[in-house]
Design brief:
This protein is an alpha+beta fold. The protein folds into 2 domains: 240 residues, CorA soluble domain-like (Beta Polymerase, domain 2, 2-Layer Sandwich); 61 residues, no CATH class. The chain contains 6 helices and 7 strands.
Length: 309
Amino acid sequence: MLTIRQGAAGGFRRPAAPGPGCWLHVDAPADPDLAAVRDFGVPASLLSHVGDPDERPRVEREGPCVLVVLQVPRRRREPDGAPFVTAPFSVFVLPQGVVTVTNEPFDLLQPLLDGTVPGLTPDRGVGLLLRIFWQVADAYLAAVREINRSVERLEDELKRSIRNEEVLGLLDYQKSLTYFATAMAENEMVLERLERTTALELDAVDRDLLEDLRIEVRQAIEMVGIADDILSQMMDAFASIVSNNLNAVMKVLTSVTILVAVPSLLASLYGMNVALPGAASPLAFAGLLLACIAIAAALFVYFRRRKWL
């Protein structure tokens, strides 16, 4: 779907057709959308990667068009597996405007498309590119905070769990953090290339924004690293907790088995059709019952003192 924005007083307006100073955004591009992008000035050779879900971050230039590919966080719709993965996001900076192409809609772009970011105009392609980069860094921070909240909700369940499901849930979150760490490192390299390249004309405002953006990206990378380290330690700790909980359950079951087995053995011996001591006494049954209760009580006290029950 093709969306067109053009700078206007107080935000963006929505022209019917692209023109100079426009921002063209395409998500889930179809052939007519790609044709409109090519007509706007994007070389067909730079569009060859569109649709590749594994495209890596990079900077490429062909003529006046500069292509910047970023990796952005994406929530998976499937219930199983890592809750977050990363997806490519392509930005084409041209003298006449900016083109962005994604394989699916991303919420991080909505504030920009709505024109709620002050001082942003599509005719300043470099400024729009840096603002998009900023939104990407904020999206990673928001995703990491959501992962941290989800992990905290799992903690109470893990403390009582004897199953592997909760630990496997932590593993899924760790997968997402691994994707984030790899993508953010590559995005940072793209940002460094943008700072060194002569393909983009950076003025004083752009350079100040670029410096602030580097700090934001570095903060996102550090938060991802910290969350990943904490989650790795939690997985090791909770794997031990699950094992200890299982051992405690097995200890209780073993103790209960012994409590039942010893009196059962005594009752079984006196159930045999042979001569046994005291079997002819009219008090044999009561004596046998009292003996079973006494043995069970003694074993229970012993197990309690040893903290096996």
